[in-house]
């Protein structure tokens, strides 16, 4: 596959409802799309960075610069035999996983189309349906949170994850548990706590949580291993895991019992597969995280989630939860059983709505070989 051109586009997509985490609130999601042309075939992927570097150190604009100045020149005019080779070209670049994933994943879409197979089977996945959970934004009161949870549970979602931060934790967790004693329930702190909160975090043990996601620093593994010794609830690492070595370090140190795999955060499908295979081998449950993706990023998440080892419901949910209109057809739907059926046509398996993308584009740049 010869890389002939890479087009970057920034779209502004308004969320149906604002999404608030411990690091900030999002009303309009800037979406960075990669459209890559190779031998007459077009591949699509999404750079899942946030608008500002508040989740990890990447942001949409930083990723754009890194692709323009460093990544695109390393692959334009070059050929790769398989998409998994792409990362070899990027070996000299440190970090910037989401930027890399944008290019690598677009090549996965192309490789799958050229071979005439759905992306999920090219990746080695086998599940034809994936279990889904939802991630609920911070709410102003526990009552509001209960309303949101009720809607998602009646839609069929198999797991509820609530965002928490100091001052918005125990009251919210206990409100949900009182009404729903048996659901799979987890919490995500996005690094809002410190080891000094260990006593407070130990109180979460009373609520039979599936996990607590990323309680401590975004770049820490060691302190999480100390915290895990003090609490029963399994820690799940999100922000701290950027590649296989991080996962190995975390598991060997006992810093977590579960890993959240995000395609962008780990640098694309190849690195995600490394972590998935390792988790499977080590008996560590994994699941696919979300980044408020458009349909294009969502389609990649669905394909990845079909691999063995993704044993827990992910944060990959229906297009309609986020967007009035999505940029793929059909949109992502969730069954009443809380699953997504994996599309079976070649490549991503969804039609990309090019005209809508053009209409919503606020910035565009084309790089050619
Ligand atoms: O920590 O999983 C996270 C959204 C943006 C940044 C970080 C996270 C999230 C979510 C939303 O939890 C997941 C989704 O529904 O896409
Ligand atoms: Mg998270």
H-E order: EEEHHHHEEHEHEHEHEHEHEHEEEHE
**Discrete helix count:** 12
List the uncertain runs: none
Mean pLDDT: 98
Q: Biggest sheet, in brief?
A: 7 strands, parallel
- Order of strands across the widest beta sheet? 5-6-7-8-9-10-11
The Cα radius of gyration reads 20 Å
Kindly name the structural category: alpha/beta
How much strand content do the residues show?
15-25%
Which geometry do the CA atoms define?
globular
Strand runs, count: 15
What compounds are bound to the protein? 2-succinylbenzoate, magnesium ion
> How much helix, percentage-wise, in residues?
25-40%
Q: End-to-end distance, in Å?
A: 13 Å
Describe the structure.
This protein has 369 residues and is α/β, with parallel strands linked by helices. The chain is 34% helix and 23% strand. The protein is built from twelve helices and 15 strands. It has helices spanning 60-75, 86-89, 97-115, 119-123, 142-155, 170-179, 198-203, 222-230, 244-253, 269-282, 295-304, 354-360, and strands at 5-21, 24-38, 41-47, 129-131, 133-136, 159-163, 184-188, 211-213, 235-237, 258-261, 286-288, 328-329, 339-341, 351-352, 361-368. Strands 5-6-7-8-9-10-11 form a seven-stranded parallel beta sheet. The protein has a four-stranded antiparallel beta sheet with strand order 3-2-1-15, sandwiched between helices. Helix 9 (244-253) links the parallel strand 9 (235-237) and strand 10 (258-261). Helix 1 crosses helix 3 and helix 5 (142-155) crosses helix 6. The radius of gyration is 20 Å and the shape is globular.
